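TL;DR need structure tokens for one chain.
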Amino acid sequence: MSFEVAGQEYALPIHSVREIVQLPETVTRVPKAPGSVMGVIALRDRLLPVVSLRHLFGLAAGQVADHNRVAVVSVGPAGLLVGVVLDKVNEVLRVRRSGIDAMPPMLAADSSLAEITAICRLDGASGWSRSCRPRPCSTPARSRRP
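>> reply
TL;DR here they are.
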């Protein structure tokens, strides 16, 4: 599933996305939570922790808008549910396994990029390619090829 954060395109594997909901007006802050944790929201009579990808990616906070969404994603072997705040949801993409490469070692060595596990190439007539992160909170970026 592709989405945007700060004008860049990223993706999550669709099998980890449980649902997509509107970002509520109120997110309850949690004392002493890591900076990337915005707080919790009530969803279907359960508390869902909500994470800011902008913060995780080291980007400035954005304005909350009607197009903001929360992707409810399943994380880890226990299937922990986490809400990931997105600026905009785009589409579901189909990527061939042959179009997915491991993260280049030079980039993987950077601890700030530790959540990126793979890069997806979607080459078409537009000349765009997207790098993707198959883990939640680690997603693909869209960049123009040189």
